[in-house]
Design goal:
The chain has 467 residues and is α/β, with parallel strands linked by helices. The protein folds into two domains: 32-61 and 323-466, Aspartate Aminotransferase, domain 1; 69-320, Aspartate Aminotransferase, domain 2, CATH 3.40.640. It is built from 16 helices and 14 strands. It has helices spanning 32-41, 69-75, 86-98, 110-121, 135-143, 171-181, 205-218, 229-239, 248-257, 283-296, 307-320, 323-342, 360-363, 373-385, 394-397, 425-440; strands at residues 56-57, 103-107, 127-130, 147-150, 188-192, 221-225, 261-265, 276-280, 355-359, 387-388, 390-392, 413-417, 448-452, 463-466. The strands form five sheets. The protein has a five-stranded mixed sheet, with helices on both faces. A three-stranded antiparallel sheet has the order 9-12-11. It has a two-stranded parallel sheet with strand order 1-10. α5 (135-143) links the parallel β3 (127-130) and β4. The radius of gyration is 22 Å and the shape is globular. It starts with 31 loop residues before the first helix and ends with a strand. 50% of the residues are buried. The structure holds ligand F0G. Residues 60, 62, 109-111, 134, 136-137, 192, 196, 225, 227, 265, 267, 276 line the site of ligand F0G.
């Protein structure tokens, strides 16, 4: 193919979006004074801002993707029958094809699946080991009477460790727990790929395989949180020698084969605004799930979703496993992260799959953790440029179920989460510049006082005042 006369010295080719823009949504521009007022009215909690007052919304990658014309076309083919919608069968077929699980129960979103799974599998007094917690996942485990035990490798709690798979499970920690409490007290191992609270960090397929072998030897199930498993597959392709030449779809399928089922928030990888599922390989468990789904979500062929939403998700799955798509998706996150690294701004490394995490402990060392440095930093970014980020530190970590004391997580982070296919490179440039500006003026920032604390998942609705 290469013609010596025309071959260029430039070997590297940038990634670029494998799509073009067909519809746009205008954004409102605000003044600094307006933003100062808005954030104070929101109790310095970015969850309580009005979306129309936000310029670049990096609160979450959940439900915020831009759907394709193929997905929108599918929305018109919604079969809104109460029972047996054809869109359910399309969805079921694609989950079986790409994720490889046998039995599927649709749910309105990820936490719906977590609720059903926890109710089926967890008994009071049980332990659920996992590679770091996720907020809703752990809460459902606890509400069902279980105790979550973190068995992720130590590197995951170190924002500066360059370990390529900070989502890995520490096999020794896992074995110790099994030996201590007994396999019969462990209904399943909760494995997430990628690990959101660790900075969007992947678990290697070698590690998952080893965990699977260990779990099998004790007769313990593994349930995957597949919310960002496609992004995890991308890191496996990039970082694990044996997988370099394999397609994302092939890697995803093998990855899931080392687990016995999954909960899924389709609002992330699967490129939809709403939807999720619970997948299981064991027929008896599936039957129980089908019994509970009609109480909490809806009939087992819609589970809280409209037919059109199931069709959009079935099609989103197909698009999500395309190599070009995932390369551009993670490439955009890397673009923003690399820019911040080049400017010396403290972020979690390696750069994760769906977000950049500012390290608030190093960014604002003058603010002690119980004055909520990450919460303050997120509020300040909004005031600076109308950028909405999310606290992922002590506020998100909540309190211990046993003692009622605050958890003090090692990681005190602000997440700049990149929605899929939504923002341009210029938006990323502006975001980086705004972060740099706040970093430059960081010395003048002080902490916050919490003046309202909700009982569950407090980060969503807590309110603060400037100290
Ligand atoms: N698991 C992980 C790893 C998640 O990131 C989320 C949601 C869920 C489960 C729950 O799914 O929202 O559909 O009920 N994460 C969102 C976020 C909210 O912003 O990271 P859900």
């Amino acid at each position: 193919m290469t013609d010596a006369k025309h071959s260029s010295p430039r070997r590297h080719r940038s990634w670029a979006e494998p799509y073009k823009i067909k519809v746009v949504e205008p954004l409102k521009m605000t003044t600094r004074a307006e933003r100062e007022q808005a954030i104070a009215a929101a109790g310095y909690n970015t969850f309580l801002l009005r979306s129309e007052d936000v310029y670049i919304d990096l609160l979450t990658d959940s439900g915020t993707a831009a759907m394709s014309d193929y997905q929108w076309a599918g929305m018109m083919l919604g079969d809104e029958a109460y029972a047996g919608s054809k869109n359910f069968y399309n969805l079921e077929e694609n989950i079986q094809k790409y994720y490889g699980y046998r039995y599927i129960v649709p749910t309105h979103q990820g936490r719906g699946a977590e609720n059903i799974l926890s109710q089926i599998l967890i008994k009071p007094g049980d332990y659920v080991p996992g590679n770091m917690y996720f907020t809703t996942t752990r809460l459902h485990q606890e509400l069902a009477g279980g105790t979550f035990v973190d068995v992720i490798i130590d590197e995951a709690h170190d924002a500066e460790s360059l370990h390529p798979f900070k989502g890995n499970i520490d096999l020794q920690k896992l074995t110790d727990l099994i030996e201590r409490v007994g396999a019969e007290r462990i209904p399943y191992i909760s494995v997430a790929g990628t690990v959101n609270m660790a900075g969007g960090q992947p678990i290697s397929i070698a590690n998952l395989r080893a965990v699977y072998q260990l779990a099998q030897s004790y007769g313990i199930r593994i349930i995957l949180d597949a919310t960002r498993a496609v992004e995890n597959a991308y890191f496996i392709q990039q970082r694990e020698e044996d997988y370099r030449n394999q397609a994302i779809a092939t890697i995803l399928h093998e990855f899931c084969s080392y687990t016995d089922g999954c909960t899924m928030s389709g609002k992330k990888d699967a490129l939809v605004n709403i939807g999720g599922w619970l997948a299981l390989n064991d027929y008896n468990l599936y039957e129980e799930a089908r019994n509970l789904i009609v109480i909490y979500e809806g009939l087992h062929t819609y589970g809280g979703m409209a037919g059109r939403d199931m069709e959009a998700m079935a099609r989103g799955i197909e698009e999500s496993v395309k190599d070009d798509h995932i390369r551009a998706r993670v490439g955009q996150v890397e673009y923003l992260g690399q820019k911040l690294l080049d400017w010396g701004i403290p972020i979690v490394v390696p750069i994760g799959g769906h977000a950049i995490y500012l390290d608030a402990k190093r960014f604002l060392p003058q603010i002690p953790q119980d004055e909520f440095p990450a919460q303050r930093l997120a509020a300040e970014l909004y005031v600076e440029a109308g950028i909405r980020a999310m606290e992922r530190g002590i506020v998100s970590a909540g309190r211990s179920k046993q003692t009622g004391d605050n958890y003090y997580p090692e990681l005190e982070l602000v997440r700049l989460t990149i929605p899929r296919r939504v923002y341009t490179q210029a938006h990323m440039d502006l975001t980086a510049e705004a972060v740099e500006e706040v970093y430059y003026n960081r010395d003048r920032l002080c902490g916050l006082k919490m003046i309202y604390e909700p009982k569950y998942l407090r980060f969503f609705q807590a309110r603060f005042e400037l100290l």
